[in-house]
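Example record for the data management plan.
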Amino acid sequence: RDSLATQCQTLNVSVMHLSGYQAQELLATPEIYLLSNIRLKLGGSHIPSQLRQQLRKHITNNLQAGYGTTETGAIAFTDPDDQNAGESVGQPLPGIEIRVVSPNRITLGAGEKGEIAIRCEGIFRQYLDNPDLTAAKLDNGWFYTGDVGYLDEQQRIYLCGRSDDMFVFNSVNIYPQDIESRICQYPGIVDAAVLPKESPVHGHIPVALVVFANNAKPKIPALNKFVVDLVGIRSPRQFFVVDKIPRNISGKISRQKAMNLSTKIDQHRKIIIQALDEHTKEQIDPSLIAAFEEGDTDIYLRDINMDSLARMELLISLEVNYDLIITPKEFVRLGSLGKISERVLSRKMQDKLVQDTCVQNNALDSTTKTTDTQHYVIQFFQRTFHYCETVAQLNKALTTLEHRLTPLEIERLYEMNRNRLLIPSSASGKFHMVFTLWIQRIKAMMLDSGKSIPEPFVAQRIAPTVTHFAGPGPRSNKTLIICFAIKGGRTLMMPNAVLMQHTDSSCYDLLVVSEPLNQRYELGIPLLGNNVTEVIDWLAKLEIIGDYSRIRTLGSSAGAYPAVLAGYYLGAELAVSVGGRLNSWRFPGRILERILTTRRAVRKRLNTRTLLCYGKDKTRDRNCARIMSWLTGGTQIAIEFTNGSVGHLILERLVDRGELSHYLARTIFAKISDEHISTDGANMTINIPAAHIRNRPF
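Corresponding structural encoding:
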């Protein structure tokens, strides 16, 4: 059979319209280099920057992301030559007026999120037999789309979601009420609710809660076929029988209620076969199917002709039944239904192992009175957990904890969880699983330091965005490392406990400065200052700064620039920039301002040394390192992996690979007398060989 790329060449295809999912499938297609002359037009769902970059790298630069509605037609497309389009869907097409409005329909400025409104020729006149909806959506020629987004200063459109219940499934708009009414046509169904299950591959997968009458016998396969015949691809991929649908006081469905999508089905091979479409199953001998279901043989993908829809349905079935995410590219790599079955089985075994470790006897309930349970960290976590009604809320709480816990506190939580004393026995197994995986992940990253005993740091909050982590011993004999977090974050690309565990607490203390507003420090930090210089002035006035004999500064990504400035203004012996970058060339004034500010800072403390680290494969970061090295006389350090790309998130990649200690020993913890620090303008490479990688089980 000819590949898709070969068929496109044969038919002289010049343009392909794709959803995000179809674009991922296209990347997994053989001979995609044959599509280099084709224009790709993407739409129907959010198209992230990473996917756009992959399409440009592997297929063509002639790429456009678009936006449109049924009521107006096409609204916008990105210009393939617009290098600053980001994740926008482009500027409005000629003849299209666009604005973003507040809930009371007041026009908002650039960067402000609100509902998108459109006015143009050829706009629809009304919704058939629905004057109320027409009046709500059309006003003075403007169509209020229900899409939430914002415009930048160049009028590029950025989409953020929907303001109503509609959700997008693989570029198909799903209107829950329409499908709910069809479900309720099935005999014995008295109520239904269609909800989106979030998916990183398909956007949102439709699933449904259904209520049967008391005397009706639930027949899910028959119900599924009935709904598919009525609504086709928009049909829910999973049905859950419940006693009642949650509704608010006015009788409307409470769609924000979390829905537990776990399954107890063990016949995973049969589930895989059931998920195949009829055309695919017709190609497979029934005896081969039977043997596969029994685990006696395998079925190779190359031997069956699965089209795009058939592959999509199989991947969706795996996701809704097992919460197992397989991308189209990985699907091709697996190569057989047996390999896919192994993935399902390994996932189920992992879930069972985690849940088994969290099974608690009544005698060991978390209400047991012990000395450990009185520790404030335990009390704090249990008080926080009390407010977590969903797994999503627990994940959010755990992310927040990552910036404030010390290694000793992580160890305390780890031991309490291992002894089944942390989470109440009455809590759902999913909560146990999520917490156990989280604590094991951090524990594994800490063990990469080579130390099994936690470093004895104690946290003290100096300000809402500044925390001092101090170890034992007099400050006058130690070095203070002032750390500037990433943009909009409170860590340096890893939980702060991991950085502390890699730090010798007898020699170093940490002062972590957070920048939680996604402003790249340009507008300062609340309570500290209105710009980077004012923030550094605030730090200079701290009493604890003067208690230390030596200071070093460390910053990653957006925190790299203030780390260099602080190094000079505070008289640090060493400033380390990790993945620093200047503003985009669209803003030459800001770049010039940073250069001049850095130059003024350098003149204050000529004895401060700088290390400017960047991923060897990131041009923008490399250029920034060159400019800053020219300004400061510092050493440029290229980070290189022998078996893969480094990228911008250097510290995150080093943590994932278990190589953070190797890097820190040669940078922030290096001796000032080391040649690569003491030599002005040196240019060196730190190579991380493949043999050092530790396979992480999480």
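Summary line stored alongside the record: Confidence is low (pLDDT under 50) at residues 260-266, 348-374, 691-698.
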